[in-house]
Design brief:
It is built from five helices and no strands. It is an all-alpha fold. It has a domain of 121 residues. Helix 2 runs parallel beside helix 4, helix 2 runs antiparallel to helix 5 and helix 4 packs antiparallel against helix 5.
Length: 187
């Protein structure tokens, strides 16, 4: 009779001495790898419940604004579908916006927060470029339905998500759960 505890079926154990760049091997990870690891952090890495709650609420608020942007563009697709390039871009922006919003709401990773912020700001900037200079041979107007309101929502959503990223970093997730410091790199 053995005194060792049984492991669950299907569970495997990794020997950390065999993992490259493990804390036990004495090797350090590259700054690029550290940045990629930091971009994959979720709010659970933040020790402070208040900071974790703040990041979650801001990420969900940003996800709602991304969703609204996507829905507005799907609604407007009916009016723009006959315009070469612009019509398909409205459809793509609507679909991608909804997918990004759902993904952000569910996973809330740093790279999703930053990606959704960039998506919103780029969408609003695209409208401004179209209004002021034209885009793909089409010039839009801020007088059309939903133009001004969607642009304001998109800039606000981008700002909310940037604040979420700042709050995330302010929560110092590299210190959480006794893990090895990943970002910012050690000097």
């Amino acid at each position: 009779m053995t005194t060792h505890a049984k492991e669950d079926v299907g569970m495997t154990r990794t020997d950390e001495t065999q993992v490259p760049n493990s804390a036990h091997t004495g090797q350090t990870t590259s700054p690029v790898r550290q940045l990629l690891q930091a971009l994959n952090w979720g709010p659970a890495r933040i020790e402070s419940p208040a900071a974790r709650w703040t990041v979650n609420v801001l990420a969900w608020a940003g996800a709602i604004l991304v969703l609204l942007s996507g829905l507005v563009h799907l609604k407007l697709y009916g009016s723009y579908k006959g315009i070469s390039v612009i019509g398909p871009l409205f459809l793509a922006q609507g679909i991608v916006g909804i997918l990004l919003a759902v993904t952000l709401a569910v996973f809330r990773r740093m790279w999703l927060v930053l990606g959704d912020a960039a998506f919103l700001v780029a969408t609003a900037a695209g409208l401004l470029i179209s209004v002021n200079f034209g885009l793909f041979g089409f010039q839009d107007s801020l007088a059309v339905p939903y133009a001004t309101s969607s642009m304001v929502e998109e800039f606000i959503g981008g700002g909310v998500l940037v604040v979420a990223a700042i709050a995330f970093l302010a929560g110092r997730p590299w210190r959480a759960q006794g893990s090895e410091r990943v970002w910012p790199p050690k000097s």
